[in-house]
What does this fold into?
Amino acid sequence: MDSAEEGAHDGHAHSRAGALAADPPRRVRNPQSHDRLDILVAYTASAARNWADRGGPEAAIRHAGDYMKMVFRNSDLGVEPHIVHIVQVPAALEWTLAGQGWWRDIFPTRWRMRGDGDVLRLRHEHRADFVHFVMGEGPLTLGFCGIHSALSRGGTAESFFQSAYGWTSNNAACRDFAGVFVHEIGHGLGAGHEPDAVRRPEALFRPYARGYVNFDAQPNIGTAMAYKGQVEPFFSTSRFDLFGATVGVRDEQDNERTLRETVHIGVRYSDYLPLLEDLPPQPTGLRVWFDGGSAHLAWRDNGRARTLTSWNTKCRPRYPTGGCSGASGKP
Ligand SMILES: [Zn+2]
It folds into this structure.
């Protein structure tokens, strides 16, 4: 989770053409890409609006991906993060998320993200180790600008691959999108906050999976996982000093050491995805109509039983596959 006050640099003022040229999209067909951390990014309509005057979401997301590569290289992690695909959030999921107060409803939101068939299909197609959403709405009540499940003690690629989902806000109030994006993926690889922001130390993947803030330096220095300090593109480390200032404590605050161990778990998350052929077929025949002051959706669920599923805005189901009793269902 992230604080809104984290980071200050503006990383989005690059042209779309420049960003795409720096990191052209590539498809991944080799499921054994263990030298790379493959990330699928999906952005909402509100996120696209926030970036409309900055070359659009593709350019901004590619730039953030380049920033992440720099952080990984600076920390000498030996694995390169790679954005394998960028897509707008599928219409059904966008509708599910929009206007439902989901922003303050973290766990059902993640459930919805994980449960979306189109996103799941893309994750399989691109063998993505991570799926990350970009939201345009402002920070949570508590100031969070991003969320990610944390790889915790004892975690494995097999136990965690279904948790490798998170989101980051690109709202202006959150400021440093690229910095928060790196921070959230860091959680998905077991990196942790600075000591006074660690809620459950016993759950840390390693005892030294903690960030570092140096208030003795002027200006102060924050590392990628720290809430405080001016964030620099490094994970906490005891391997070197930064501008003559310490940015970690050996055996205590060393996310770099943690990540060197865990990144090899992260690149294997996609190994545990079931085969694409084993997924249920996609729904078809999505229809939207307005009637009596509410919006209605209907589609054909082609999995298991061939049933018609529908929602309307007056009976908001808590979970997307749960249907909605009393929903009107024009075929
Ligand atoms: Zn965090």
Observations:
- Residues 56-74 form the longest helix (19 residues).
- The two ends are 42 Å apart (CA to CA).
- The pocket of zinc ion is lined by residues 1-2, 183, 187, 193 (CB under 6 Å).
